[in-house]
Specification:
Blueprint: E1 20-21, E2 24-25, E3 29-38, E4 41-50, E5 54-62, E6 68-71, E7 79-91, E8 96-109, E9 114-126, E10 131-143, E11 149-164
Antiparallel strand pairs: 1-2, 3-4, 3-11, 4-5, 5-7, 6-11, 7-8, 8-9, 9-10, 10-11
Length: 165
């Protein structure tokens, strides 16, 4: 497995202001940008939220994924190179967060082919402030012939995020 270099840089995006509607006060809307790195893969996640707990948005990542295969499809000479996922995230006040990405797509490249397959992720992150560390499990549905297919399950043991609000 190749050694990973973890480097993050980023740009802060200010949060939106709170809104009032017909005398009732709503929770302030916020924008959270997370720049993340995994072994040899980097990306960004933009989450919109209302209140301190729930957020939803989009994650994009690119680079060869050096993840641990938990359940193997025929993936000896195949690597996931990019992905995009819809994200729903909840974060507790104690700094533990869980993100679920049930809908996504992964670009998979092999020796003699490339294809985009359905994908999903579930991640956990811990940390207060700007730096968070965590892990995730990614599932990619590799299509087979005649309506068959297999699930390629990967575990990314280390993911570091730099958060801007």
């Amino acid at each position: 497995m190749a050694a990973a270099v973890l480097v993050c840089t980023g740009l802060a995006i200010p949060a939106g202001a709170g809104a009032q509607t017909q005398g009732t006060q709503t929770a302030p809307r916020s924008i959270e940008v997370q720049l993340f790195v995994e072994p040899v893969r980097a990306g960004a996640q933009v989450l919109l939220g209302r209140g301190p707990v729930w957020r939803a948005g989009l994650a994009l990542g690119a680079g060869p994924s050096y993840a641990v295969t938990l359940r193997s499809a025929e993936t000896r000479d195949v690597r996931s190179w990019a992905g995009a996922w819809a994200v729903v995230s909840a974060r507790a006040r104690n700094g533990i967060g869980v993100s679920v990405s049930p809908i996504g797509a992964a670009l998979v490249i092999g020796n003699d082919f490339s294809a985009v397959y359905p994908s999903g992720e579930i991640a956990i992150a811990v940390g207060q402030g700007r730096v968070r560390g965590g892990s995730l499990v990614r599932v990619i549905r590799i299509a087979g012939g005649f309506g068959t297919g297999t699930w390629w399950t990967q575990w990314v043991p280390v993911r570091v995020s730099l958060v801007f609000r």
